[in-house]
Amino acid sequence: MPKFMDVHEGMYGVTPEALQQAHQADLDIQGDEGVDFQRAWADPESGKVWCVSEAPNADAIRRIHERAGHPATEVYPVPVEV
Amino acid sequence: MPKFMDVHEGMYGVTPEALQQAHQADLDIQGDEGVDFQRAWADPESGKVWCVSEAPNADAIRRIHERAGHPATEVYPVPVEV
After folding, report:
1. Is B62 helix (H, G, I), strand (E, B) or coil?
2. Which of A56, B21, B42, B59 is most buried, by CB atoms within 10 Å?
3. DSSP assignment, residue A33?
4. A43 inside 8 A of chain B by CB
């Protein structure tokens, strides 16, 4: 399944607990769209969050993040990785 | 050691071989600055590459990427992850 990197902006001050809660909200509904959210990293100071997932397509990721209450600013396919 | 996400722009058309070579160029000299580059993901279409590393500070990452021939556009600390 294709892999994606999505980026969120504006999550200033995000704590480990808040990121875990947001991630869990994705996990709770990701099956509806066949998405598999794998990892996420956050910088509380810049408010940026990056998520790596596998999904059928970018729109599936957008829909899950939007329903979970934290729409993605950008979603990129990442077919190349090391 | 602190973790970081750095972003490269303009790497249009990057192939798996090119990303592996670029990553290896980092690995070859990362010890000079105490950096540990762990993973990288690339979108050949947008030209963006994201790298996760552990490092003493952001400047150490900038110096290694610059010496390896692919300066980072942005480097963010990511103290929060899931």
Report:
1. helix
2. B42
3. T
4. yes
Residue of A nearest to B82 (CA): A40
User: Do the Cβ atoms of B71 and B2 come closer than 8 Å?
Assistant: no
What b/e readout covers A58-74, taking b as 16+ CB neighbours within 10 angstroms?
bebbbbbbebbebebee
State how far the Cα of B15 lies from the Cα of B29, in Å rounded to an integer: 22
Contact criterion met (CB < 8 Å) for B80 and A43: yes
ipTM confidence score = 0.95
Cβ-Cβ contacts under 8 Å, B42 against chain A: 78-81
